[in-house]
Amino acid sequence: MTLSSLIIKEIKRFGPISFRDFMEMALYYPGLGYYTSHKKKIGKTGDYYTSSNLTPVFGEMLGKQIQEMWHILGKKEMTVVEMGAGTGLLSGDVLTYLANSPELFHDLNYCIVEKSPYLLKEQQDRLTHEKVNWYNSISELKGMRGCIFSNELPDAFPVHVVEMENELMEVFVGYENGFIEILKPASDQLRDYLKELEVTLPFGYRTEINLDAIKWIREMGSALEKGFVISIDYGYSSRELYQDYRNRGTLLCYYNHTVNESPFEHIGEQDITSHVNFSALDHWGQKKGLYLCGFTDQAHFLMGLRIDEYLKNLQEKSPVDYFKKMLPIKSLIMDMGGTFKVMIQKKGVEFAELSGLKFPSEAPNRSRDAG
Fold first, then answer.
1. What tens digit of pLDDT does each residue of 154-181 get?
2. Contacts of 348 (CB under 8 A, 6+ apart)
């Protein structure tokens, strides 16, 4: 039975389902969802590229930031956790960089939290170092000290879709010779989300609410005793996210390196994403003791970590390698650098001047009236 047939069966049996539940089934249904199937997802033969697919330099720069955090935390035993490690490429690049510091590497515990059986196997095939261990949940690492990081993770969490009519309405998915949208009054939980962020939506405005991201940031805040959280993804602060020209939301689908806005097509075969609200991660993170270190874009994050110095050294040592490696690094900075944002939060750390935040963007803020 196809995934579409299973979803239709669910709707016919129980009635319309929230778009959030539809998206969760499309992405995570066991064996048939986009992230749980054996379909190649990342790279040339997949549906999209990530920064680590372009060049290992991204992982090296991230490793450099983690090394600096290790110094700030007193050069003691350090646990580094990657939430959702994809194919394991980024983990490998970070580990390669950290291995250059024998003292750090000796005291390093490298952990991956991964829920996709397909990606887990790919990671385990690639990452054979004894330093690496896998977990089902960040809660298994409660009391950890070090750094938790993710690259393009919360954008793929299932989201509620809401639209402001005479009152806040939520989009549900029904079926009548095809999938259809049905509006129902939104729950108090969705209303409270906007209220806490001090967001007022005008009539006709549609957007997404990522409650799973709130659960995620809370879990990380509970697990981390002392250290940092690095979140890298595409998204905005509330001030940017709720601009008038985004009144139809940010939901996008990726299929064979093309982008569309049709989540009811290619079900289980295409990625479905929405932009991250970094103000929400900041707001609910603070409730779990995670306080903002800074917020910037990927280009300025890499510049702060002196990627220019890396290129200069490369050019001096090997001009041939320089021209070969420069183009993907240029794409990392120019093509993806403004789209992807980097937010770093801290817990139990009094002072932390981080190189990656040397050139900050506007800090995430809560208040925004859409329109």
1. 999 999 999 999 999 999 999 999 999 9
2. 225, 226, 227, 289
